[in-house]
Amino acid sequence: MRHEKLSVAEIFGWTAPLRTQVAQVKMALQGDVYTPPSRWGLSSVKIYRPVLSVKTWLGWRSADRLVPVTNFFNRTPTSVEDGWSVRKTQVRDFRGGTATYDSHNGTDFAIPPGTLVTAPAAGWVRRVSSEFHRGGLKVVIEHGGGLMTTCGHLGRALVREGEFVQAGQNIALSGYSGIDAVVSFPWNVPHVHFNAWLNGVPVDPFAAPGEVSIWVHHNDPRPFSGEMSVPAYEPVVWDEDALAKLIEGCCDPQLRRALLEIEDLDKRAVDTVFMKNYFPTRFAYDASPYADVFERRPRLVLPFSRDEYDGVRLLECGR
After folding, report:
1. What tens digit of pLDDT does each residue of 93-135 get?
2. Among residues 153, 156, 159, 148, which one has the least CA distance to residue 123?
3. Who's near 191: CB < 8 A, 6+ residues apart?
4. Residues 177-206: pLDDT tens digits?
5. What pTM did the predictor assign?
6. Do the bridges between strand 191-198 and strand 201-203 make them parallel or antiparallel, or are there none, so unpaired?
7. What are residue 149's DSSP bridge partners?
8. What is the Cα Rg of the chain in Å?
9. Cα separations in angstroms, 51 against 48, 56, 57, 170
10. Which of 315, 317, 306, 318 minimizes the C-alpha distance to 69?
């Protein structure tokens, strides 16, 4: 199955009540008492790839079966206190190029809406949620060993919270949900925004010189196959005191109360990490909620089906 027909509402994430989405758009543009406004500028148009975008919206896939990566993790991000920035003012990807933007803390895989998205490693689905102003529909998987991943801008989730998934298992259909697509359609490429969080903080799964890649095949990630050796799930131990401190340091009383009311420890920890990374200015502390500290090591496979893709195509460095 590929390129399944999704409704326009699913693709763009128009699934919440209109009043909720209007409020989220307003918060993204103007900020609120806890969150600085987002920042755009003339340099933001350098992110657009209109030729690739239009083709991908129309369902095009490269004959080489490689997923184009349009934006990488920025190794020199601007301060979170300055607000989420889609400008290109201080950027450096893992290759030393500029194929990213100021606040980009993930990897953008360009694929047509309706494409199957798969689990990048075994783990527990801890969160399925849609935040229109923060990446649309997302599936968050906790893989153990200090590692979590999120796939964002999805069109439809195929899993539920509390499910255990294996590497390569179908978890969603891609879309381009969230404010990003509404603002930039049709010039920005529909994509899955992929985050890796290690020890509770965003990390680049690609390795710069001297680093260890978190991809199983180093900087050449490939979809899961039955012949592939991948790490098993590693049970996690949370530092409950550190987690309590993180939640106590949340300056938003409504969010703090919501986190405290989550009875399941795994769910409470993952939701706290999620909120801390998507709304960092609402948290006073940056402690890890894990009892141990985990090093980078190969754990992840490309989160797409082997039936459709063989690997990735790294677009120009933008030097």
Report:
1. 999 999 999 999 999 999 999 999 999 999 999 999 999 888 9
2. 148
3. 70, 108, 109, 110, 111, 153, 174, 176
4. 999 888 889 999 999 999 999 999 999 999
5. 0.95
6. antiparallel
7. 141, 196
8. 18
9. 9, 9, 10, 29
10. 315
